[in-house]
Design goal:
single chain; 487 residues; alpha/beta; Leucine Aminopeptidase, subunit E, domain 1; Aminopeptidase; 2 domains; 8-stranded mixed sheet; 6-stranded mixed sheet; 14 helices; 19 strands; 34% helix; elongated; binds ligand BES; binds manganese (II) ion; binds zinc ion
Length: 487
């Protein structure tokens, strides 16, 4: 979607004009036919409402859309403006119209509000049609350009940052939407190498031989049944002060999770192409930060493996050595994300001594049982960090809900033969998974684990996405860095 700004409406009389209107206060300059039509359709400007009417201008029929922004004093004003933008895109994306004028001259929005509308317009317009060669015309995306008229002063600067973030969200969606025969560890790395060219971010890749030397046998064990080599991808953005300890993001990048020898049942297994959603969010967030030149030092680490059953795959009951020196009994090869993250966490701490560390993972099905698709689960050893993330969740729309951890849960993963086992009893499955990760945090480093199993993929269209990959996490992490590490 191409978004451009213009001073006036004159440009060869547009056929589709959209306006954003506040609740119960329709602007006085609307054509009579539109006012009447809106009233007849019970359109009042409520958040998410859209009305379309036709009126004549110089003998030509113009299609006019009104998008409701709700009340100006609403707590969720920014979200409502994003929704106004996204509902316009949802309505016109496949309408046959290729261009829309967004007339904001009377909308009374500031630059931030305008950027919110545009974020909605842009994010709702993303679809992954790469492999759909037989779309009928009416299914094809038609809307390709939006011209904004009457944007307030300063909008372009605010939008250029918001646009960077939207680009990050779209990159995450792309990585998550791609099937596992296309995105596997090596191709995930390649796609990042291409995408980060010219951004100023630095990319580093650890191959299997090097991880072997470092003693990352727990991570490597997950990938040992796969023909695809495991990789550890590091994306560094050092836009902050020299010598300031970085924030680290660590993502679970299981490019496909069959469960391994503890193989998953067939129905729904295809969903497990999105088991790299944590790594995808880390890559997208790093892209957003580097495109908007964030004034912060941030390290993104992606643990990339494929979990397959095979003659060489690890077995339930195996005991593995970890980089941390601790040993782990693998009781279920399907609880593999924590194995990948454990070694990635150790390496990240030893390599970068981060000031705080946030990991993101589609870690447990139990998380979906707890929170459904509305919130990601937040687990943390540090209340301040937890509160900062909860706050970033609220302002970004990538919502989080805090879950408990503690010694009573921790002892549920003690093993009779090794230092710990990779699963607990049936109950509290998301918490015991978090406890497992917590055993790899050193020196009480402030750490948070985000279990995003329920939020990376949507079965139905949402506020800012069509069904499919949501891009969850990018706006959250960007907001978090903005609030805590910049300025
Ligand atoms: N990737 C899955 C978790 C998952 C399931 C994410 C469904 C999204 C949707 C993870 O690797 C897994 O298989 N977890 C097991 C853990 C169990 C064996 C303790 C689970 O949730 O069943
Ligand atoms: Mn699994
Ligand atoms: Zn998994």
């Amino acid at each position: 979607m191409k978004i451009t700004f213009s001073d006036s409406l004159t440009a060869d009389s547009p056929r589709l004009v959209a306006r954003v209107v506040d609740q119960d206060t329709l602007p006085s300059d609307l054509p009579g036919a539109i006012v009447e039509g809106a009233a007849a359709s019970r359109f009042t400007g409520k958040k998410g409402q859209v009305f379309e009417g036709f009126h004549e201008v110089d003998g030509k029929l113009v299609r006019m859309a009104l998008a409701g922004a709700g009340k100006t004093d609403d707590e969720g004003r920014i979200a409502a403006l994003e929704k106004a933008g996204s509902s316009l895109t949802a309505k016109y994306l496949t309408s046959g119209e290729s261009a829309m004028v967004l007339d904001l001259r009377d909308a009374g929005l500031d630059a931030a509000g305008t950027a919110a509308v545009l974020t909605g317009v842009r994010l709702r317009g993303w679809r992954w049609d790469e492999y759909r060669t037989k779309l009928r015309d009416e299914q094809k995306k038609s809307l390709a350009a939006v011209t904004v008229v009457g944007a307030p002063e300063g909008t372009e600067a605010v939008w250029s940052e918001a646009e960077a973030i939207a680009t990050g969200v779209e990159f995450t969606r792309e990585l998550v939407a791609e099937p596992a025969n296309i995105i596997y560890p090596a191709s995930f790395v390649e796609r990042c190498e291409k995408r980060f060219e010219g951004t100023g971010a630095e990319i580093q890749v650890l191959e299997e031989a090097e991880m072997e030397k470092l003693g990352m046998h727990m991570l490597l064990g997950v990938g040992q049944g796969s023909r695809k080599d495991s990789k550890l991808l590091v994306i560094k953005w050092m836009g902050g002060k020299d010598g300031e300890a970085p924030t680290a993001f660590v993502g679970k990048g299981v490019t496909f999770d069959t469960g391994g020898i503890s193989i998953k049942p067939g129905p729904g297994m295809g969903d497990m192409k999105f088991d790299m959603g944590g790594a995808g969010a880390v890559a997208g967030a790093m892209l957003a930060l580097s495109l908007r030149k964030a004034k912060a030092n941030v390290i993104g680490v992606c643990g990339l493996v494929e979990n397959m059953p095979d003659g060489n795959a690890q077995r339930p009951g195996d005991v593995v050595q970890t980089m941390s020196g601790q040993t782990v009994e693998i009781l279920n090869t399907d609880a593999e994300g924590r194995l990948v993250l454990g070694d990635a966490l150790t390496w990240t701490q030893r390599e970068f001594s981060p000031a705080r560390i946030v990991d993101l993972a589609t870690l447990t099905g139990a998380m979906i049982i707890s929170l459904g698709n509305e919130h990601g689960g937040l687990f943390s050893n540090n209340d301040e960090l937890a509160d900062q993330l909860l706050q970033a969740g609220k302002t970004s729309g990538d919502k989080l809900w805090r879950m408990p951890i503690g010694p009573a849960y921790n002892k549920l993963i003690d093993s009779p033969i090794a230092d710990m086992q990779n699963i607990g009893p049936r109950g509290a499955g998301s918490i015991t998974a978090a406890q497992f990760l917590g055993r790899f945090i050193e020196n009480d480093t402030p750490w948070a684990h985000l279990d995003i199993a329920g939020t990376v993929w949507a079965d139905k269209p949402g506020a800012l996405w069509d069904k499919g990959a949501t891009g969850y996490g990018v706006r959250l992490l960007d907001n978090f860095i903005r609030d805590t590490a910049e300025g």
